[in-house]
Amino acid sequence: MSEFWSAIVTELTPYVPGEQPNDPNIIKLNTNENPYGPSPAALAAIRAEAQDTLRLYPDPQALELKQALADAHGLQTAQVFVGNGSDEVLAHVFRGLLKHDKPILFPDISYSFYPVYCGLYEIPFDVIALNENFEIDLVDYQRGNGGIIFPNPNAPTGLSVTREALEDLLKQNRASVVVVDEAYSAFAEDSFVDLIDRYENLLIVQTLSKSHALAGLRVGFAFANPILIEALERIKNSFNSYPLDRLAIAGAIAAIEDQDYFARIRDRVIETRTRAIEALSDLDFAVLPSQTNFIFVTHPRSGAAEIAHALRERSIVVRHFNHPRTENYLRITIGTDREIDALIFALKEILPS
Q1: Is the link from the previous residue into 35 a cis peptide, with omega within 30 of 0?
Q2: Res 1: pLDDT
Q3: What's the Rg (C-alpha) of the chain?
Q4: Distance CA 297, CA 304 (A)
Q5: How far apart are CA 83 and CA 66, in angstroms?
Q6: Which of 53, 126, 243, 345 is the S-S candidate for 84 at Cβ 3.0 to 4.6 Å?
Q7: Assign residue 132 a region: left if phi > 0, alpha if psi is -120 to 50, beta otherwise?
Q8: Average confidence score pLDDT of the chain
Q9: Bridge-based pairing state of the strands 319-320 and 330-333
Q10: For 131-148, how does the pLDDT look when each residue is reduced to its tens digit (9 = 90+)?
Q11: Is 321 exposed, middle or buried (0-12, 13-18, 19+ CB in 10 A)?
Q12: How far is CA 226 from CA 147, 229, 273, in A?
C-alpha cells in the first residue's frame, strides 16, 4: 500500500530508540533512564490533577510551568519554551531556526535524531568529526553554516566542551543559531543557560527525563532570547497548540520545585558512576571520563557486540552502536548500585581471564 505514501516517506530513515524489554526481570542499562523514581511531590501533584478538570483543555502556553522554569534558572518567562519532551522541542528548533540554505553542522558521533530531523524537514547538513579523543572541537565549527547543534555533554561519549570554547564559537558565529542540547547537563559540571542573556544566537534545550526521573511524562524545554522563543511558539501553534497535558504540567512544576529531591538522586547517580568507572577500569575497560548518567567503554580483548550479546543472555541490556568509529564501544546507563553490581559480576564471568 506504499503507493499512498508521500514521496518524502520513502526517503526517510527513522530514528531507532533503544530496546524497551517487557520482562520486568531484565536489568535495563540501555536508554539512560534515571534508576530512581520521580519526586514524591511530583507524583502527588499528578494524582491531585487527575480529576474532573481533565475534561478541560490545559493551558496552551503552560504559563505556570514556564514560570517555575524561569524562577529556577533566573530567567523571564519570555525566554522559556516548553514542549512534549525535548525531542519535540528539537523538532521545532530544526524547523523554525535551522532550516536555511547553508548546511547545519553537528558531530559525526552524536544524537542520531539530528540527521533524522534533517531528512524530515529537508535541511542540508554536514557532520564534523570528533577528534581522536572523541571530543567535540568547536574550532572545527567556525565556518559558514545555517546553524550549529551539538549535545553537551555529548551522547554517546559523555564528554563536554568548555565554557571558554563555547563562548569563542558564539563570538565567531553570530550569523546563525547555536543550539546546545543539554539533556544530560544535570550530571555535568556546568550548564550554559546563564549565557543566553549575553548571546542572542544561543539556544539551550533541556529535559526532565533523565535529571528528574520523568522520562514517561515527556516534558522538554528551551531557553533563549525572546525572539528565538517566539519562532518556536509560532511553529508549535501551527502544529499542536496543546503539547503538554494537565498531568504533565502539574507533575513537572512539582518536580522542578522539589530541588532537594532532585539533588539527592543526582548525587546518587554521580556516586554510582564513579564506582562503576573504577570497577570497569579494574576489568581493563577503557572508560571515557563521563559527565552524564551513562559511561562509554571499550575492552581491549573482547568485542563490544559480543559483550552486549553475552550480557543480554544474562538479562542485562546495554547499548551498542554500529558506527565505524564506535563499533567496539558500549554505552552503559548508570543504574542502582545493585544493578551495577550485577553488571560487574556478569562481566567477570564473560571476559577472558
Answers
A1: no
A2: 58
A3: 21
A4: 9
A5: 11
A6: 243
A7: alpha
A8: 96
A9: antiparallel
A10: 999 999 999 999 999 999
A11: middle
A12: 18, 5, 37
> What ranges do the domains of the chain cover?
2-37+260-350, 41-258
User: What confidence score (pLDDT) does residue 7 get?
Assistant: 87
- What does the alpha-carbon distance between residue 325 and residue 46 come to, in Å, rounded to a whole number? 43
Residue count (the chain): 353
Q: Residue 107: its pLDDT value, please?
A: 98
Question: For 64, what's the count of Cα atoms within 13 Å in the CB-facing half-sphere?
Answer: 15
Task: Judge contact between 348 and 322, C-beta under 8 A.
Answer: no
| Architecture of the domain delimited by 41-258 | 3-Layer(aba) Sandwich (3.40)
| Residue from 127, 204, 218 nearest 163 by CA | 204
Distance from CA of residue 253 to its chain's centroid? 20
Q: Please give the single-letter amino acid code of residue 262.
A: F
Backbone torsions φ then ψ of 197, nearest 5 degrees:
-70, -20
- Report which of 272, 312, 317 is spatially closest to residue 292, judged by C-alpha positions: 272
Rounded to whole angstroms, the Cα distance separating 315 from 25 reads: 7
Residue 25 is placed in which grid cell?
A: 526481570
Nearest residue to 147 (alpha-carbon basis) of 84, 196, 201, 80? 201
DSSP reduced 3-state for 175: coil
Cα–Cα–Cα angle for 329, 179, 190, rounded to 5 degrees: 70
pLDDT of residue 22: 81
Q: Is the CB of residue 123 less than 8 Å from the CB of residue 99?
A: yes
Bridge partner residues of 298 (DSSP): 286
Pick the CATH number of 2-37+260-350 from 1.10.10.10, 3.90.1150.10, 3.40.228.10, 3.40.1190.20: 3.90.1150.10
Query: Quick check: 134 and 107 in contact, CB under 8 A?
Result: no
pLDDT tens, position by position, 185-220? 999 989 999 999 999 999 999 999 999 999 999 999
Q: Distance between CA 162 and CA 24 in Å, rounded?
A: 40
- Grid cell locating 154: 555529548
By three-state DSSP, how is residue 283 classified?
coil
